[in-house]
Amino acid sequence: MLVSAKEMLEKAKAGHYAVGQFNINNLEWTKAILLTAQENNSPVILGVSEGAGKYMTGYKTVVGMVNGMLEELNITVPVALHLDHGSYDACYKCIEAGFSSVMFDGSHYPIEENVAKTKELVAVCKEKGLSLEAEVGSIGGEEDGVIGMGECADPDECKSIADLGVTMLAAGIGNIHGKYPENWAGLSFETLDAIQQKTGDMPLVLHGGTGIPDDMIKKAISLGVAKINVNTECQLVFAEATRKYIEEGKDLAGKGFDPRKLLAPGFEAIKAKVKEKMEIFGSIDKA
Ligand SMILES: [Zn+2]
């Protein structure tokens, strides 16, 4: 059964480790992440962006697929199904469809409107038992069509959103989505420290986990980050493994064209990457 991310993240923050959010795109992705979590006795968060939700034909299909796998793969570790960077409307659609967690990305609204909409969603999510992630200070990157250096959130704004009763808070600390540019300045630990001091026990979320050096990840966890989003990195290893299979001509040998064979190396590559991340984040055996 899907669970809210609240308890797993509170435990992570108190225990100084982080739970990975791994974004899913299809059946192979979902199965690879769930099996890896179970094999390593780790809690896990499955992230679904609005685009991926649409790709998978809608949120109800996603919920049906994930719930089916939890049962048929005998998954017993805590699993949350989470809307990533949701609009106001998408949050309601996911709540309705059976997600156990949503992120309301109100970072593009003026702070007053972000507060008003977040407040409303806090009440709805509380009533229905979902966890809610809010974002302060936009997290840049290629999603916006521009590779930015990553903004830093205002710690006072973070506190005003945290005080509304959200479950976890994403704040820009120089992180960006997608691959990091060569001249990236790194994470601002000064900002992260200031945010943690203002928001206390609130689990903090680090977006754009791809390409942040391991020592920076560990330092971020020591400063209150309890959830780390990984998306691009699984896409890269999946594509690389699939390309290798085809370049080696394996799809032309015997029944190598069978999609179950063609997609197997990518599947295994995702599993290895997810395990590697769980080791770095410290979530293994924390289920
Ligand atoms: Zn993000």
Primary descriptors:
12 helices, 8 strands, 15% strand, globular
From the alpha carbons, calculate the radius of gyration and give it in angstroms: 18 Å
Please provide the ordered H/E string of secondary-structure elements.
Answer: HEHEHHEHEHEHEHEHEHHH
Q: How much strand?
A: 5-15%
Major sheet characteristics: 8 strands, parallel, barrel
Structural class: alpha/beta
Envelope shape: globular
Euclidean distance between termini CA atoms: 14 Å
Number of DSSP strands? 8
**Mean pLDDT across all residues, rounded?**
94
Uncertain residue segments: none
What's the helical proportion of residues?
40-55%
Describe the strand arrangement of the main beta sheet, using strand numbers: 1-2-3-4-5-6-7-8
Bound molecules: zinc ion
The number of distinct helices, counting runs of at least 4 residues, comes to 12
Describe the structure.
The chain is built from twelve helices and eight strands. The protein is of the alpha/beta class and about 290 residues long. Strands 1-2-3-4-5-6-7-8 form an eight-stranded parallel β-barrel, surrounded by nine helices. The longest helix has 18 residues, at about 110-130. It is globular, with a radius of gyration of 18 Å.
Short description:
This protein has 12 helices and 8 strands.
Mind sketching the topology for me?
Elements: H1 6-15, E1 19-23, H2 27-39, E2 44-49, H3 50-55, H4 59-72, E3 79-86, H5 88-97, E4 101-104, H6 111-128, E5 131-136, H7 155-162, E6 168-171, H8 189-199, E7 204-206, H9 214-222, E8 225-230, H10 232-247, H11 259-262, H12 264-281
The structure holds zinc ion (ZN).
Zinc ion (ZN) is lined by residues 85, 139, 177, 207, 229.
